[in-house]
Every structure is written in C-alpha cells, then in structure tokens.
Amino acid sequence: METVHFFLEGPGRETIAVTPVDEGEWHESQRTNDVRRAMIDEEGNIAEQTDKNGYRYQFRGRYGVWSLVVSD
Predict the structure, then answer these.
(1) pTM above 0.90?
(2) What is the distance of C-alpha 24 from the center of its chain?
(3) What is the CB-side half-sphere exposure of residue 71 using CA atoms within 13 A?
(4) What is the C-alpha to C-alpha distance for residues 65 and 67, in angstroms, rounded to an integer?
(5) In the predicted model, what is the mean pLDDT of the chain?
(6) What is the spatial distance between Cα 22 and Cα 19, in angstroms, rounded to a whole number?
(7) Are 38 and 47 in contact (CB under 8 A)?
(8) How far is CA 9 from CA 1, 29, 48, 60, in A?
(9) Are 5 and 71 contacting, i.e. CB atoms less than 8 angstroms apart?
(10) Is there a contact between 70 and 4 (Cβ–Cβ < 8 Å)?
(11) What is the distance between the alpha carbons of residues 14 and 64, in angstroms, rounded to a whole number?
C-alpha cells in the first residue's frame, strides 16, 4: 500500500510537510454549512482551508495563501 504525503506550498515556493487534522482535534465555527478542513505542520501550526475545493490554506500569523500538494 502506498503512503500519501501532504505538503503546503506558500509564498516564494516554500514547502512545508503537513498532516490532515482529525475533526475531533479541531473544530470550525458552526456559522456556515461548509465543511472546512485543517492541516497541521511539525511545529503544531494549524492551516485552515480557505476555499471550497480544499486546495488553499492559510496559517494564522503567517503571510499568504498556501496551496495543497499531494505526493505518493
């Protein structure tokens, strides 16, 4: 079975390895019916999904929008 790796690519093409956050660990406010995902990096920083398709994320306290990259 192949392993899938997740990365977020940000401004300047900086790439950070991330893992999806389990829904039990992170809760989005209930203001919308949209399902939003989150990713977490090795330092514990959480990036929240900013688009409906799940390809754009933003870290709190970090500049710019980050793009999801999936690799096997």
Answers:
(1) no
(2) 16
(3) 10
(4) 7
(5) 85
(6) 9
(7) yes
(8) 26, 25, 14, 15
(9) yes
(10) yes
(11) 11
Find the DSSP H helices in the chain. none
Quick check: 21 and 46 in contact, CB under 8 A?
Answer: yes
- What is the reported pLDDT for 72? 86
Q: Tell me the two tokens of residue 23.
A: 């829904």
State pLDDT tens for residues 14-46. 999 999 997 655 555 444 555 679 999 999 999
Which residues partner with 38 through β-bridges?
48
What six digits make up the tokens of 20?
């999806």
- Tell me how far CA of residue 51 lies from CA of 43, 58, 65, in angstroms: 24, 10, 10
With CA atoms as reference, report the closest residue to 42 among 16, 63, 68, 67: 16
